[in-house]
Amino acid sequence: MLNMCCLDCEALDENDKFCFLFFLQGKHTEALPLYEQALKVYEENFGPHHPRVAETLRNLAVLRYEQGDFQLAASLYKRSTDIKEMTYAQKPFDRRSSSGESSNLRAPIAMSPQLLVSEER
Q1: pLDDT tens across 5-24, in order?
Q2: Distance (Å, rounded) from C-alpha 27 to C-alpha 67?
Q3: What is the pTM of this model?
Q4: How far apart are CA 18 and CA 107, in angstroms?
Q5: How far apart, in whole angstroms, are the C-alpha atoms of residue 55 and residue 20?
Q6: Structural domain count, the chain
């Protein structure tokens, strides 16, 4: 069980691994309390709008979807998406690498809508 009083990154990472493992094994009942506990710890330590909170909300949404709780899954997924949109809206795109050098970004590939549609459909 995670210590709610202090943030232990290793314990949180291990918790995430167990959540994912249980989910892959179809052990949703075991994964659910771990995801909920991780969400509570992330919200308390990082705040409600942190990317880790968004990631955990998305994982909970997938789990709830798999359990057939589509309304709750949609609500959790929307909250996750809202956090991600807020996070990325606040950070301007920077073409420099972490070292300050200009990165070698390629120009976006121009794509015609016809290329995206398969004629076999």
Answers
A1: 445 667 777 777 878 888 88
A2: 10
A3: 0.64
A4: 40
A5: 12
A6: 1
Residue 81 lies in a domain: yes
Whether residue 99 lies inside any domain: the answer is no
Read off the amino acid at residue 41.
V
Q: Which residue range(s) make up the domain with 85?
A: 9-90
Residue 35, pLDDT > 80, answer: yes
> In terms of C-beta distances under 8 Å and separation of at least 24 residues, what long-range contacts does 5-14 make, across chains too?
7/41, 7/45, 12/38, 12/41, 12/42
Which amino acid, 92? Answer: P
Long-range contacts: 59-65, Cβ < 8 Å, 24+? 59/19, 59/20, 59/23, 59/35, 60/32, 60/35, 60/36, 62/23, 63/23, 63/28, 63/31, 63/32, 63/35
Query: Tell me, what DSSP letter sits at residue 102?
Result: B
Whole-number Å distance between alpha carbons of 40 and 62? 18
* Alpha carbon distance 107, 96 (integer Å): 15
